[in-house]
Amino acid sequence: MGATGEGTGGTRGGLAGQTVVVVGGSAGIGLETARQVRAADGALVLVARDAERLRRAADELHPRSTAAFDARDTGRLERFLGELPGQVDHVMVTAGSPSYTPLAELDLTDAGRDFGGRIAMLLAVARASREKVRAGGTLLFIGGTGGRRPAPGMAVTGALTAALPALTAHLALEVAPVRVNLIAAGFVDTPLSASLLGDRLEARREELRRTLPIGRVVGPADVAALALHIMTNGALTGATYDIDGGQQLVAH
């Protein structure tokens, strides 16, 4: 899929003729990235846990194929990627959500599943991609910046925030010439954010509009635009790219 060009990974002309697998592609950042891939004349394979949301996304975007399952099932995820026909050009993984549980209320089984399951999911994608993603293509993971400042309730999320850049850098060497990169997002105005904040959502939006250097809230389209840039710039690998509107520059 897509010719390989010297020094660019074959992506200088954009995504035309290329196939992007989006794991977590039925809502939020994944769905918006899928929309921008289609607008750039790329083809899609969509994976999501919620079958009904996935159907709605497929009705809008007309992917080559879809699959509804929980990406934390690493065996199924690895088999699914391995059984895709031919090679693909990029695999983006947005599945997963942060944990904000205080230590006193933390279920250790849940904590182990949240941390270990997220790492295992990305390792499964990387292992399957050695044969499935063309040389110069991309594995693109979505993480966060929230755990960089220690705070109560952020132990699991903070550990993942620290672990994912290291995982990304190591995998970039191990699966080369496939490229591996991480997007570390701050607050993004998605349905997941709305579900986590509930009736505090609008107050959080207003606080960010008032305090962020960019003067507005980061949306899924902002993150999707960065994702497409990473996919189409063949010189990028092993790196973490922050996108938070300057949130880390502002005192909490």
Write the layout of secondary structure elements.
Blueprint: E1 19-23, H1 28-39, E2 43-48, H2 51-61, E3 65-68, H3 74-83, E4 88-93, H4 108-132, E5 133-144, H5 155-174, E6 179-185, H6 191-197, H7 201-211, H8 220-232, E7 240-243
Parallel strand pairs: 1-2, 1-4, 2-3, 4-5, 5-6, 6-7
Helix pairs in contact: 1-8, 3-4, 4-5
Primary descriptors:
252 residues; globular; 7 strands; alpha/beta; Rossmann fold; single chain
What does this 3D model show about the protein?
With 252 residues, the protein is of the alpha/beta class. It has one domain (19-242): Rossmann fold (3-Layer(aba) Sandwich), CATH 3.40.50.720. The chain is built from eight helices and seven strands. It has a seven-stranded parallel beta sheet, with helices on both faces. Strand 4 (88-93), helix 4 (108-132) and strand 5 form a beta-alpha-beta unit. Helix 1 (28-39) crosses helix 8, helix 3 (74-83) runs parallel beside helix 4 and helix 4 (108-132) packs parallel to helix 5 (155-174). The chain starts with 18 loop residues before the first strand and ends in a 9-residue tail after the last strand. This is Short-chain dehydrogenase. It comes from Streptomyces corchorusii. It holds the Pfam family adh_short_C2. Belongs to the short-chain dehydrogenases/reductases (SDR) family. Keywords: Oxidoreductase.
